[in-house]
Design a protein that fits this description.
With 121 residues, the chain is an all-alpha fold. It contains 3 helices and no strands. The model has no long low-confidence stretch (mean pLDDT 91).
Length: 121
């Protein structure tokens, strides 16, 4: 297989993984997200190796649209991750606030603790 065909196949595989990763992020399937990221990390050295065997001018003209699409997909996934992270942080703040409120309410309804020693004699 020529380096150009192999590179195209690798980029297509990367695109499929990135699209699946985006769906997993959107649904909160974090184990799947990790699997897709691991698969892309394993793919990365091969992508780099094959890319080195392609003429730079040809690489730029032939593969730039595919690479731009991958960059767009990766940025979309990052935006999804940022939105999910922000939502989780807001939920954590709300839960912490509720916890504090419940503790204050609990304190107002509990009788004060009695002293164990009334006198020393």
């Amino acid at each position: 297989m020529s380096p150009e065909l192999e590179f195209t196949a690798l980029l297509d595989q990367w695109r499929r993984l990135t699209e699946q990763e985006g769906r997993a992020i959107a649904s909160g399937a974090w184990a799947q997200v990790e699997n897709f990221q691991s698969a892309k990390a394993l793919l990365q050295p091969r992508v780099s190796e094959v890319r080195e065997r392609i003429d730079p001018a040809r690489h730029e003209s032939q593969f730039r649209p595919l690479i731009d699409e991958l960059i767009r997909l990766e940025r979309g996934n990052q935006s999804l991750l940022d939105a999910r992270r922000q939502a989780a942080q807001e939920q954590e703040r709300d839960l912490n606030r509720s916890d504090r409120n419940l503790r204050q309410i609990q304190k107002s309804y509990l009788p004060p603790a009695r002293a164990l020693w009334q006198s020393y004699s």
